[in-house]
Amino acid sequence: MQGETKEDLPLPSTVKKARYSYISQKIILQFQPSIDPNDIPYEQLAWWKSIFSYIQPNDYERLHLRRLCNMFKASLKPPPKGVFTEFPHQNHTSLSSLMNRLNALYEEDPRRAPTILFIKEGEHVRHKRFAMKWKRGRGRREEQTDLVVTYPMKIIGAERNKTILSGYCFNFEGQKGEGKNVELNDMTVKGSSGAGLFNYNGISFVCDSMAFTQCLGYGVYAKNTKGRLINLCDHTV
Known about the structure:
Blueprint: H1 13-27, H2 42-55, H3 59-65, H4 70-75, E1 84-87, H5 95-108, E2 116-119, E3 122-125, E4 147-149, E5 153-156, E6 163-166, E7 170-172, E8 181-190, E9 197-200, E10 204-215, E11 220-223, E12 227-230, E13 233-236
Parallel strand pairs: 1-2, 2-5, 3-6, 4-7, 5-8, 6-8, 7-9, 8-10, 9-11, 10-12, 10-13
């Protein structure tokens, strides 16, 4: 039909992959890392580094951008080292289900368990039937929270205002030890029926660029453990 447009229709995944392929093969100058300074396209590297300085991709985005081509790999700093997984996950409908599986993997064989969990942009809501009971003044939970972390790992969101965990409560357990800790980065935890983060005699932790808000108990409750709070927002009702 004359005048018909299909601009608003979503692109199929094959088209998106073709575009990525075109970018990496045609637009971006290809090169292989070399020890010969004459083989390194410094001008192209400077150009892409400048572009990425404005875009400021997060750890998860850098991980996938670096896989597109050698130019991106050389222009972007590497993401955190370690085996990683991500949420949403095709085999787990909830974040708690994925976390329970990771804990089980670590108990079976620590070498198989991912040490980095990327949580993508969006609001991830915990089902109400998992709600944790909390009584003010008692300083402890009556029921185990559904989001337990039992081993050293990094849990990284897209940004504090982009990755929202609604109704979730982190509970850090596991053995304390030198160099062992759990890191939470770039997320907001809101609407917990208890504490946003609960740690009683558990593994050490670091929170960087996090927000805990609208929690009925505490934003962060920690006792008999070690923790660092960096650039933190803590608001309770």
